[in-house]
Design a protein that fits this description.
258 residues; 8 strands; 12 helices; TIM Barrel; binds 1,3-dihydroxyacetonephosphate; single chain
Length: 258
């Protein structure tokens, strides 16, 4: 049985003045919610403050990216030992905004997956096709390529410690989410690949999150679909009450679904 996981990716939102009350409300609002894991990924500049607020609560801390090297001459980058020191448990790797805006390659992303695992943190590896790729019938080819490259050289054992996120690029920040059917068939496909790359057991335990215009209104039906084990939430994670509704609905669907 997979416990649902809901992760808020705050992206480039959250001055300290904004991040502190948001984190406090999420921490307080999740106190009595059972059957779901929750994490928030604020910008680097708010990690320490948010980490203090969620310390000793059930809310986990995550970073939105990292460098694969533990230290060195890499201006502007943030290393995994720095993230560990702040109490991070998760690191988002290979988000489509970084693939597109920064030009992160599959090889760079694979290096980060290895580095995150080596430090004992959990990578949230993102894959997803563009609208054009979907129109051309390349959805499965695209996500398969990203998954195989992202997991290259990762041992079957380590694969069980990874979280995957299917985030169709056309659904991110557009208000148009993938339907439960569209998401579910990709999640099922990814789970099949994990079975091939690692083992049947790994495929059973690995959590595959859906991301792309998740909001309180569509969470229930998405989370009830087969193979969807939680959500990676962007815009809707910036409103505490909305995010908490998503968390509760994911917990409810998880309890019902397994
Ligand atoms: P939105 O929820 O704003 O569509 O963003 C999804 C996302 O990219 C989360 O990583």
């Amino acid at each position: 049985m997979r416990t649902p996981l809901v992760v808020g990716n705050w992206k480039m939102h959250g001055t300290l003045a904004e991040a502190r009350p948001l984190a406090t409300a999420i921490r307080d609002g999740t106190k009595r919610v059972k059957g779901v894991d929750v994490a928030v990924c604020p910008p680097f500049t708010a990690l320490a403050a948010v980490g203090e607020i969620v310390r000793e609560s059930s809310v986990r801390l995550g970073a939105q990216d990292c460098h694969a090297e533990p230290s060195g001459a890499h201006t502007g980058e943030v290393s995994l030992p720095m993230l560990l020191e702040l109490g991070c448990a998760f690191v988002i790797v290979g988000h489509s905004e970084r693939r597109r805006e920064i030009g992160e390659s599959d090889a760079v992303i694979n290096g980060k997956v290895h580095a995150v695992l080596a430090q004992g943190l959990t990578p949230i590896l993102c894959v997803g096709e563009t609208g054009e790729e979907r129109r051309q019938g390349l959805t499965f080819t695209t996500v398969e390529g990203q998954l195989r490259a992202g997991l290259a050289g990762v041992t079957p054992d380590a694969i069980t410690r990874i979280v995957l996120a299917y985030e169709p690029v056309w659904a991110i920040g557009t208000g148009v989410n993938a339907t439960p059917g569209q998401a579910s068939e990709v999640h099922g496909y990814l789970r099949g690949l994990v079975s091939e790359l690692a083992s049947k057991e790994a495929a059973q335990v690995i959590r595959i999150l859906y991301g792309g215009s998740v909001k309180p209104e569509n969470t229930g039906e998405l989370m009830a679909a087969p193979d969807i084990d939680g959500a990676l939430v962007g815009g809707a994670s910036l409103n505490a009450q909305g995010f908490l509704q998503i968390v509760r609905k994911a917990a409810h669907a998880g309890a019902r679904g397994d």
